[in-house]
C-alpha cells in the first residue's frame, strides 16, 4: 500500500513536470517572428557561448525565439539532433542556423534541413564545397581572412624584429603554429590561408600541432614544439587564437625565451585575456568577435525572412588587427572598434 | 574496523614481478627507440618536459588508481571535479580570498564531491553510473553558475603555485612525484592500503576479517577527488583562470595511464608507481611522435595501440600466472 502511494506520488510529480514543461514550450513558441533553431557545438567553449549570447540577444530584439541545440564537437550527436528536430516538426520554426562540428561529415544533415524548405544559414565555417546550394547564405567569420590577417601580422612582427637588430634563425625566420583541434574547419581554413603567406615571406614553418582552444592546450602544444625545434631556433609563433597564445607565452617563458623580444607571438582571434597584448608579450591579434558573429547570423536570417533574399551571399564579420601598444604609437586596444563595440567589449569573456 | 584487525598482506603465492617489469620494460623500449631515432628525445630538458606533460593527468590517475584497486573500476567525474575546482579556485581568488583560504575551500568542496560519490557507491551504486551522473551534475552546475564564461582570478597572487620551478623543476612535476610516492607508500606500507587491495581482490573475504568495503569506497573516492582538485588548483593558478573545458578528456587519459600501468580492472591489483609510469609512458610516446613530426591521427592511433597492447599483454600474463 505504501509502495503504491509512492508510485502515485511519483507519477503526480512527473505529470506536473510534463504539464509545466509543455506550458513553458507553448510560451517559447509564442514569439511573433517564430523560432530560429541553431545547431552549434557546445557552449562550454567560451567563444561559442559568447556567440550564443549575441544571437539570443539579437533574436529577442528582432522578435524571434532562438532555440539552441548543442553538441560536444561531435557530428554524430549533431546529426541525431537534426533528425530529432525534424521528427518533432516544429511548426513555428522559421529558420535554421547551422554551425557544423565537422563541416564535411555534416553535409547530409545540412541537406536534410534544407529539404524541409525552411531557410538555412551557415555560420562560423563556410559551407563545405558542393553544399552551398543547401544554404541561403553564410553569416559569420571568414577564417581564411583571419588566417591571412594573422599571417600578415606574423610577417610584420618578423620585420619588427629585424628592424630592431634581432638575428633571425634561417634567412626569413623560423615559426611554429599552435592550432585548433585536428579536423576543425576553422583551424584548417586559418592555417590554409596563413601558411602560403608565411612561405612567400620566407618564413619557414618548423612544425604545427593541433591541440585545442585554451591556454592549457596552447601550453602543452608549445612545450612539445619547443622541444622538437629548439636546436633550429624559434623566432615566431602563430596561435590560432589568443587563448592558445596565453599558454604559448607561458611555455616560451618557462623555456627561457622572452616573448616580445627574442620571439614574437601572434594570436589569430582575441579571446579572453588582454594582459599579454597590453604588456607586449603578444604582438597582435585579430578582432574576430564571437558576440558579433552571433548577432550577424540572426541579422542575416532576419534580412532573408523580411525580404525573401540576401543582398550578399557571404556576410563576413570584419576582422581588424589589434596590435599591442608596445609596438604602435596609437593604442589600438582603445581605438579599434567594430559596430560600436570596443576591443574590451568584444574580446573579454 | 572490527575483529582482530589483522589484515592479510597478500596471497599464498609470491608476488609476481612480471607486470611491473613489463610496465618498466615498455618505458625502456620507448626510451631506446627515442634514443636511436630522435637525438633530442633523450635530453634532460626533454625528460623534464615529458614528466611535466604527464604531471596533471598523472596526479589524477595515481589518485584514481585507488578506486581501481578497490574494485570500483574508475571515476568518470574526475575531469568535471578538476574543472569545477579550477573554476572554484579562480572564483574564490576573484572574491579577494587569500590563496590558502581558496585552496582549502576547493579541497573542502572536492572532498564533499568525493565523499558523496563514495557514499553512493558504498550504498550499492554502480561506480560508473554514479560517477557519470555526478560528473554531469557538476558540469551542468558549473556551466550554469559561470554562464559558460571564463572565471578569472583577477590577481596573480596564486600564479607561483602553477608557474614556479623549485630547483628548476615545475611545481606540478614535484607534486606528481610526491603524490605518486605517497600513494605508493600508502598502498603498500599502511593498513589502509592493504585493506584497499583486499577489498578489491575479494570484498566478501575482506568483510569476514572485519573490513568495511563501504568505508573503503568512501575513502578511495575522496582521495581521487582530492587529486582532481589539486590538478584544478594547479591549472587555475597557472593561467589565473578557471574554465569549463580545462580538463576535457582527462578521465579517459587517466584511465589510459592506469591501464598502461597494469592495474587489474576488476580490482585487487595495481600500483600507484606503475600508474605514474603509465602516465609518463603515454606523455613520452606523445612527445616522441611530435618530435618525429607525426600527424594528429597517427599519434592517436599509436596511443590507442599502446593501450590495447598493454591491456591484452597484462591479461595474458595474469591468466598464465593463474594457470601456473
Topology summary:
The complex is a heterodimer of chains A (349) and B (324).
Chain A: H1 2-28, E1 35-41, H2 46-62, E2 65-71, H3 75-88, E3 93-98, H4 107-114, E4 120-123, E5 137-140, H5 143-163, E6 174-179, H6 185-200, E7 204-210, H7 215-229, E8 236-239, H8 242-254, E9 264-267, H9 275-279, E10 284-286, H10 290-307, E11 314-316, E12 321-323, H11 332-335, E13 337-338, E14 341-342, H12 343-347
Parallel strand pairs in A: 1-2, 1-3, 3-4, 4-5, 5-11, 6-7, 6-8, 8-9
Antiparallel strand pairs in A: 10-12, 13-14
Chain B: H1 18-37, H2 44-69, H3 78-94, H4 99-122, H5 127-146, E1 151-152, H6 159-163, H7 171-189, H8 191-201, H9 203-208, H10 213-239, E2 241-242, H11 250-260, H12 272-291, H13 296-323
Antiparallel strand pairs in B: 1-2
Helix pairs in contact in B: 1-12, 1-13, 2-7, 2-8, 2-10, 2-11, 2-12, 3-4, 3-5, 3-10, 4-5, 4-10, 7-8, 7-12, 11-12, 11-13, 12-13
Amino acid at each position: 500500500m505504501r509502495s503504491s502511494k509512492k508510485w502515485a506520488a511519483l507519477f503526480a510529480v512527473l505529470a506536473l513536470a510534463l504539464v509545466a514543461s509543455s506550458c513553458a514550450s507553448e510560451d517559447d513558441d509564442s514569439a511573433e517572428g517564430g523560432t530560429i533553431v541553431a545547431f552549434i557545438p557546445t557552449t562550454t567553449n567560451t567563444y561559442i557561448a559568447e556567440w550564443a549570447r549575441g544571437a539570443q540577444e539579437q533574436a529577442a530584439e528582432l522578435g524571434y525565439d532562438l532555440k539552441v541545440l548543442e553538441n560536444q564537437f561531435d557530428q554524430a550527436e549533431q546529426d541525431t539532433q537534426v533528425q530529432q528536430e525534424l521528427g518533432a516538426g516544429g511548426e513555428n520554426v522559421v529558420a535554421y542556423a547551422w554551425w557544423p562540428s565537422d563541416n564535411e561529415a555534416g553535409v547530409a544533415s545540412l541537406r536534410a534541413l534544407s529539404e524541409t524548405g525552411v531557410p538555412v544559414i551557415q555560420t562560423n565555417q563556410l559551407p563545405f564545397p558542393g553544399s552551398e546550394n543547401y544554404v541561403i547564405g553564410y553569416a559569420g567569420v571568414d577564417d581564411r581572412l583571419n588566417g591571412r590577417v594573422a599571417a600578415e601580422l606574423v610577417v610584420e612582427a618578423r620585420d619588427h624584429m629585424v628592424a630592431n637588430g634581432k638575428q633571425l634563425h634561417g634567412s626569413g625566420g623560423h615559426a611554429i603554429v599552435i592550432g585548433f583541434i585536428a579536423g576543425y574547419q576553422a583551424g584548417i581554413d586559418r592555417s590554409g590561408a596563413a601558411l602560403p603567406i608565411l612561405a612567400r615571406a620566407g618564413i619557414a614553418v618548423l612544425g604545427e600541432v593541433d591541440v585545442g582552444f585554451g591556454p592549457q592546450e596552447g601550453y602543452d602544444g608549445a612545450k612539445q614544439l619547443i622541444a622538437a625545434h629548439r636546436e633550429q631556433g624559434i623566432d615566431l609563433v602563430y596561435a590560432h587564437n589568443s587563448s592558445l597564445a596565453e599558454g604559448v607565452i607561458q611555455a616560451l617563458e618557462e623555456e627561457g625565451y622572452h616573448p616580445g623580444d627574442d620571439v614574437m607571438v601572434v594570436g589569430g582571434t582575441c579571446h579572453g585575456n588582454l594582459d599579454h597584448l597590453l604588456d607586449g608579450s603578444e604582438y597582435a591579434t585579430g578582432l574576430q568577435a564571437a558576440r558579433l558573429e552571433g548577432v550577424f547570423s540572426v541579422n542575416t536570417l532576419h534580412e532573408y525572412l523580411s525580404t525573401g533574399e540576401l543582398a550578399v551571399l557571404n556576410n563576413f564579420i570584419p576582422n581588424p588587427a589589434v596590435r599591442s601598444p608596445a609596438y604602435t604609437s596609437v593604442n589600438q586596444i582603445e581605438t579599434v572598434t567594430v559596430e560600436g563595440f570596443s576591443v574590451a567589449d568584444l574580446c573579454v569573456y | 574496523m572490527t575483529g582482530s584487525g589483522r589484515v592479510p598482506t597478500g596471497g599464498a603465492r609470491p608476488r609476481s614481478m612480471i607486470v611491473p617489469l613489463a610496465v618498466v620494460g615498455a618505458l625502456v623500449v620507448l626510451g631506446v627507440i627515442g634514443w636511436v631515432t630522435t637525438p633530442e628525445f633523450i635530453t634532460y630538458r626533454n625528460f623534464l618536459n615529458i614528466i611535466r606533460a604527464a604531471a596533471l593527468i598523472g596526479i589524477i590517475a595515481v589518485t584514481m588508481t585507488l578506486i581501481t584497486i578497490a574494485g570500483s573500476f574508475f571515476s568518470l567525474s574526475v575531469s568535471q571535479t578538476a574543472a569545477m575546482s579550477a573554476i572554484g579556485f579562480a572564483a574564490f581568488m576573484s572574491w579577494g580570498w587569500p590563496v590558502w583560504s581558496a585552496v582549502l575551500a576547493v579541497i573542502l568542496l572536492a572532498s564533499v564531491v568525493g565523499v558523496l560519490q563514495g557514499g553512493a557507491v558504498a550504498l550499492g551504486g554502480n561506480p560508473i553510473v554514479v560517477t557519470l551522473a555526478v560528473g554531469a551534475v557538476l558540469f551542468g552546475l558549473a556551466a550554469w553558475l559561470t554562464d559558460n564564461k571564463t572565471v578569472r582570478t583577477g590577481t596573480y597572487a596564486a600564479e607561483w603555485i602553477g608557474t614556479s620551478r623549485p630547483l628548476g623543476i615545475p611545481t606540478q612535476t614535484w607534486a606528481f612525484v610526491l603524490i605518486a610516492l605517497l600513494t605508493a607508500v600508502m598502498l603498500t606500507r599502511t593498513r589502509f592500503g592493504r585493506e584497499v587491495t583486499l577489498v578489491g581482490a575479494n570484498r566478501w573475504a575482506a568483510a569476514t576479517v572485519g573490513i568495511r568495503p563501504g568505508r573503503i569506497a568512501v575513502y578511495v573516492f575522496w582521495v581521487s577527488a582530492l587529486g582532481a582538485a589539486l590538478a584544478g588548483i594547479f591549472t587555475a593558478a597557472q593561467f589565473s583562470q578557471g574554465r569549463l573545458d580545462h580538463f576535457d578528456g582527462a578521465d579517459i587519459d587517466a584511465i589510459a595511464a592506469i591501464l598502461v600501468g597494469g592495474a587489474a580492472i576488476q580490482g585487487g591489483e595495481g600500483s600507484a608507481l606503475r600508474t605514474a609510469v603509465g602516465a609518463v609512458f603515454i606523455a613520452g610516446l606523445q612527445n616522441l611522435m611530435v618530435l618525429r613530426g607525426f600527424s594528429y591521427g597517427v599519434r592517436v592511433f599509436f596511443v590507442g595501440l599502446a593501450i590495447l597492447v598493454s591491456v591484452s599483454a597484462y591479461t595474458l600474463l595474469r591468466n598464465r600466472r593463474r594457470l601456473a
